[in-house]
Amino acid sequence: MDKHYLTWKDFDNLCTSLHHDIRQYEREQNIKFDGIVALLRGGAIPGIWLSHNMNLPMRAIGLKSYEDTQQTDGIELYNNIGNELKDFIENKAIIFVDDICDSGRTYSCIKDLCGLDYKNIFVTLHCAKDAYYTPDIFAAKSNRWIVYPWEP
Questions:
Q1: How confident is the prediction for the chain on average, in pLDDT?
Q2: How far apart are CA 146 and CA 2, in angstroms?
Q3: Which domain, by its residues, includes 90?
Q4: Which end of the chain has fewer surrounding CB within 10 Å, N or C?
Q5: Distance (Å, rounded) from C-alpha 15 to C-alpha 24?
Q6: What is the pTM of this model?
Q7: Is residue 47 part of a domain?
């Protein structure tokens, strides 16, 4: 498997690009985002970066669709914070953040779970070139296996 190892500087550059593009989206759509939901585990660190740099509150929800480098048959939901998450996202403009969109299954799961609508966007650091769903905003396209600086 062709792996691409990112540095912390690479990560910072990708997040800076996302931040810029999200602010541009806000201006174009005349919208102001109210918060961030990071999709664990991959979206945790990008979510924290965006939360701090955009001065937005953040929550997290856990989804698991991989065992090591192998995609599983389904998506396991864990760390569902129930009513607290519903209260956090209800009638608000929310940014859902993940590290990569490789197939689009996570987006579909979040859309079903949280009822994503026009006020909410899905952003990722990377998007696979052959993903059947393209995030609203992503920093780079890649079909390589990305190893982020926080991963072993």
A1: 83
A2: 9
A3: 3-147
A4: C
A5: 14
A6: 0.84
A7: yes
Q: Residue 8 corresponds to which amino acid? A: W
Distance CA(56)–CA(35), nearest Å, equals: 5
Residue 19 has pLDDT above 60, yes or no: yes
CATH code for position 19? 3.40.50.2020
pLDDT band at residue 45 using 50, 70 and 90 as cut-offs: very high
The count of structural domains within the chain is: 1
Long-range CB pairs of 43-49, under 8 A, 24+ apart, other chains included: 43/96, 43/97, 43/98, 43/99, 43/124, 45/11, 45/148, 45/150, 46/11, 46/14, 46/15, 46/18, 46/97, 46/98, 46/99, 46/125, 47/97, 49/11, 49/12, 49/15
Is residue 134 included in any domain, yes or no?
A: yes
> Would you say residue 152 lies in a domain?
no
Backbone angles phi, psi at 70, to 5 degrees: -105, 125
Of 126 and 104, the structure prediction assigns the larger pLDDT to: 126
Structure-token pair, residue 148: 């982020």
Biggest distance spanned by C-alpha atoms of the chain: 42
H runs (alpha helix) in the chain: 8-29, 44-54, 82-89, 105-114
Q: Give the chain's count of helices (H) and strands (E).
A: 4, 8
- Evaluate whether residue 82 is within a structural domain: yes
Give CA–CA dist 67/55, Å, rounded: 33
